[in-house]
Design brief:
Oligomer: homodimer
Strand order of the largest sheet of chain A: 6-7-5-4-8-9-10
Largest sheet of chain A: 7 strands, mixed
Radius of gyration of chain A: 20 Å
Shape of chain A: elongated
Order of helices and strands of chain A: HEHHEEHEHEEEHEHEEH
Structural class of chain A: alpha/beta
Number of helices of chain A: 8
Number of domains of chain A: 2
Strand content of chain A: 15-25%
CATH superfamily of the largest domain in chain A: NAD(P)-binding Rossmann-like Domain
Amino acid sequence: MAAREVPNIVISRLPLYLRALEFMQREGKQVVASRELAERLGVSSAQIRKDLSYFGEFGKQGSGYQVDHLILELKRILKVDREWDMALVGVGDLGRALVHYEGFKGKGFCISLLFDNNPEKIGAKINDLEIMDSRLISELIPKWGIKIAIIAVPPQEAQGVADELVKAGVLAILNYAPITLKVPKHVKVQYIDPVVHLQRMTYYIGGNN
Amino acid sequence: MAAREVPNIVISRLPLYLRALEFMQREGKQVVASRELAERLGVSSAQIRKDLSYFGEFGKQGSGYQVDHLILELKRILKVDREWDMALVGVGDLGRALVHYEGFKGKGFCISLLFDNNPEKIGAKINDLEIMDSRLISELIPKWGIKIAIIAVPPQEAQGVADELVKAGVLAILNYAPITLKVPKHVKVQYIDPVVHLQRMTYYIGGNN
DNA sequence: TCGTTTTTGTTCATAATACCACAAACTCCT
DNA sequence: AGGAGTTTGTGGTATTATGAACAAAAACGA
């Protein structure tokens, strides 16, 4: 496979393949064909094969893909064959739920630093993690070498927090605040806004679509 | 504009336009050009104009779009010019955070029914909402005429819950469980899995991308 | 009033994406 | 051993999405 730049849309699908493969692994499946994986995910098998072919030849004709091996390869490609420390900014209801969330375990991520600007929260602990003053972002993030942050603050504070994080060296932001962030283009942002997701579905309900 | 089918990718952008416009509205802005909106969102102005043109001519040459009016039109198009009752299944940490979430207010959505299968939770109240037994899904959802549900249960229960919801008449599901759901094609699903979103960014960190 | 500047809606060309189809490689059964 | 059945990786093609460019319309200033 030529060393072409891999399209972002391909990268965005790999985590879905990985998630499904890990699910199958827990079910005890050892080998899987692109066809079966495709059916589970509701995509075409050709797409899966083509996406994977950007990175190498992982399958075997006649049988398919070794589940364990493909999982390892995908983790390596996505760079989640390690554990990334993350900073969480904004410890409200949502922030707290994220700290307690068990789903990060074994997936390559770990919340290691908490920030909030509410004096009543600073110093308190959640899951043995102390809540730090947001003003210490520029000091603690470089010290820990943190590259990934989660923003869970009110919308009007989000851009300011993002600016601070970027200045401190963060390269990837998972943004739960309902606002589009302005960041330098070397910084990646992913958005989670339940309202946006819901509004993407209502168009199709009821009407003549 | 001809009555062509509107591509899903266009629909998926409209909530972002709406969100930015409402932000500008709160700032007191009355008129906006596609150019300015585009810059805020990091997209091209041609794209915004083209997306909007699927639904009509909302702008005026020389000045731009009336913010108030465009908001109303987008809300009408997306069918959020009303309030949708939603059912939430799974009242764990995340479910609780969603019930307390203030962001649904005024955006067209309202959580009106809670379900859980944990006997210790059933009957308890959160925000004046009683937690109902999940076995009552098939009874209460049609009774309330609910069309939208949020799934916040552990992954191994998610597919079963989805099946129940679909049977009860739900047409749109916001799925927080880390699993791809199998649903009939008249049912829309949107996925929120922080791990997937994070894994879409790590590929670009550090390496030679 | 009239020329200059803005901005829309749309056309058209280009780019990105998805998918069909098939040779080659492997499996499995008899 | 060998033929039938599977499944991969990929070349080619159809489809879809993006973006540049421009006429028409409105705004503005002198």
